[in-house]
Amino acid sequence: MMNRQARHAILAKANRDECARQDYVFSMKQFVTGALAQAGAAGCRAGIERALEREDDAGDRHASRRRLERAPHYQMASSLKRTIQELIWDTTGESVERQLEDLIETAAAVRARGRRLGSLRLDPGLRVPRYLSAVDIHSMPGNYHVELTCDDVFAGAIYDRGVYLFSLGGGGPNHENNGKSLAAFVKHRFPDLEPKRILEMGCTVGSTALPFVDAFPTAKVHAIDVAAPLLRYAHARSELSGRAVQFSQQNAENTDFADSAFDLVVSTGLLHETSGKALPRIMTECFRLLRPGGVMVHGEDPQYDAMDPYDATLHDWGTRYNNEPFMSTMHEFDLVELAVDAGFARETAFPQIAVDHAPSAGSKRDGTYRGQTFAGRRYFSGAVK
């Protein structure tokens, strides 16, 4: 269970009691999002579809939600999911808090050593956007950016351990599966692309940037995020893995890189954590940063037009109950139109493409995970400049 996460020098280690509590939460989430969700899915889906047909609003996920939220099965499962989400951070947080001083020292020692593979550039004056600072995203205490102490890495350490539990190991033992899938998609769809400079926006702990170092060994990989505690941790994690990434603290809406600085700009799960005003700016910034012929690819969950009302209602849960305020709105956007408005030619922009993704060994993340038919796949959209 939790012990299947790959160990590395800056990962917070759980003692026996902490590991037992984390394994309990892991198992409970498996049950609630697996067996319990599937037990009620067929009846709930059929009932909603019949009701929506009578009301002639079969495409309305809001009507689906109102009906689903009256179902005792959904109420119980939803309450358990929220409780589990809080327990994820409680149980992983105690491991991080106990070792925080040592983790900070490890990250500082990596930064201080003479020979480095990559780099870390922080901006103490950077203003964290309100769409992040106003809420603890997916209920993670302090969100990504809050500093508890000097040279803090708490947010990175709790994210690294907690997201493994949250995803039931679906990101693989090193959380690299999303990045591997994205890199493989780029290589398959753009076989002639030989990027010299790559940028990942919203890199968190760097686990999705590292596969690009492996996939494009001659490229210089940059990764940005607004949160200093994440970047300190990501830099140490990357260096200790023996891979070079150039980390910098920047807002993806307005970076300090030169025009046409990159051959490839990517993100994984970034877009749904921004805002209605920020998202078009990020797309415009991607266009500015790409050289002619450069490629932009964003990995996200599927848009609502790829789901039926039942699946869309389940997907809405994060917005309504798990501090993901922009998730629902983002998945209503037309990603092609956003790219065209940013300056990309319409014929080069492509809507979301679904790619099968094999779950990691021991993972329960298959085609029925959370009762949703789109789980176990990756969805990529983008454009060529």
Structure description:
The model is unreliable at 358-374 (pLDDT under 50). Helix content is 45%, strand content 13%. It has one domain (1-385): Rossmann fold (3-Layer(aba) Sandwich). α2 (61-68) packs across α10 (309-321) and α5 (154-166) crosses α8. The chain has helices spanning 16-55, 61-68, 72-112, 130-133, 154-166, 177-189, 210-215, 228-240, 278-289, 309-321, 327-330, 335-342; strands at residues 119-121, 197-201, 220-225, 246-249, 262-268, 290-300, 350-356, 377-384. It has twelve helices and eight strands. The protein is of the alpha/beta class and 385 residues long.
Q: What structural class should be given to the helix and strand makeup?
A: alpha/beta
Low-pLDDT sequence parts: 358-374
| Rg, Cα atoms, Å | 21 Å
Strands side by side in the biggest sheet:
1-4-3-2-5-6-8-7
**Overall pLDDT metric:** 88
List the quaternary state of the chains. single chain
Order of helices and strands: HHHEHHHEHEHEEHEHHHEE
Largest sheet descriptor: 8 strands, mixed
| Helical content band | 40-55%
CATH superfamily: Vaccinia Virus protein VP39
Break the fold down into its secondary structure elements and pairings.
Blueprint: H1 16-55, H2 61-68, H3 72-112, E1 119-121, H4 130-133, H5 154-166, H6 177-189, E2 197-201, H7 210-215, E3 220-225, H8 228-240, E4 246-249, E5 262-268, H9 278-289, E6 290-300, H10 309-321, H11 327-330, H12 335-342, E7 350-356, E8 377-384
Parallel strand pairs: 1-4, 2-3, 2-5, 3-4, 5-6
Antiparallel strand pairs: 6-8, 7-8
What is shown here, in short?
The protein is α/β, with parallel strands linked by helices.
